[in-house]
Amino acid sequence: MRVSEIDTPAVLIDVEILERNVRRAAEHCRKHHVALRPHIKTHKMPPLAHVQIEAGAVGISVAKLGEAEVMADAGIQDLLVAYPIVGAAKLRRLASLAERARVTVALDSFEVAEGVDRAARDAGREIGVLVEVDSGTARCGVAPEELPALCRRIAGLRHARWHGVMTYQGYITGDPETRERLMREENGRVNGLLDRLERDGLRPKVVSGASTPNLDLCQLLERVNENRSGTYVFNDRNTVNSGSVRWEDCALRVAVTVVSTAVPGQIIIDGGSKTFTSDRAAGSADASFGRIVEDPTLQLVKMNEEHGFVQAEGAARPKLGDRLHLIPNHVCVVVNMHDQVYLHRGDEVIDCWPVAARGKVR
Ligand SMILES: Cc1ncc(COP(=O)(O)O)c(C=O)c1O
User: Fold this and answer.
1) Whole-prediction pTM value?
2) Pairing of strands 226-227, 35-36
3) What is the CA(323)–ligand 1 centre distance, in A?
4) What pLDDT digit, counting tens, does each position of 167-194 carry?
């Protein structure tokens, strides 16, 4: 089957670019002795998690237990749930997950750690704990000065095992000089944290960090020994805008068809917010919803659920039935909208993978 024969809207993955992205990240981490534990919230597909592990990843990171369950069903054995597990229903699922895979949970409170401890007791298995510290995102994570006391309390639990610390450098983007400066500053902060833990007799086995826009500089965080980057497998407009990759590094495109040219000055494509989501480009004044590969001057400026409004005038205006390809603003949320993706080498479709962990928000 040829790529042009796939019905639209469709998510296409260029396998050559994908393989290059996977290989590049694995080699970089290996060279710098950092364990790569990719976040699979980007792709949500067990076969791709296996490709990452075969390339050298030590395991995977997930955000949700539902994602972890799909991956464990597919034989992935080492899982970090990089998200606090709260509530009895989830703790029961955590216990049964721990019976069939090695599981670590990231959290930022003793209450959540106690729940994990009970789940480990019920499973009769160890469950690891990473304590998340706020690296500047002001999302989850304890303040640096609270870290030693929380780690000490968790290290005293009977069934859960304190393994270390989780940081997240998602805010570090920009041109190479800016990223390098911010990473060096972050290195100073992380070293300060770890020194403080060590003065208290706490030696973390794992110091976990991320993300894609600073993956190429992960070695600057000297004592961070694990990296959870996720978006690097596909890349997207945000990672290109972050200054760390080029358009040629974007492995995923969404194929769409022009379905109406009735209104002057615009065309309508068959992908709207149910295909692309409404995520804007991060940190950019550009308000469009993706880059149109065939002609980046065309702008997807507005969406209804199934209609994409593209501003297009004059000779450059695509015709009814034309196919266009878009690099999305934020690839992770786009994958989550689709049942399957098509893998291709050049113009030949070589496989179709279900997005098995899509919609696993619990
Ligand atoms: C806790 C955590 N770790 C890792 C990642 C992966 O970051 P990225 O997709 O930028 O590589 C994310 C992304 O949202 C995250 O929230």
Assistant:
1) 0.97
2) parallel
3) 32
4) 999 999 888 999 999 999 999 999 999 9
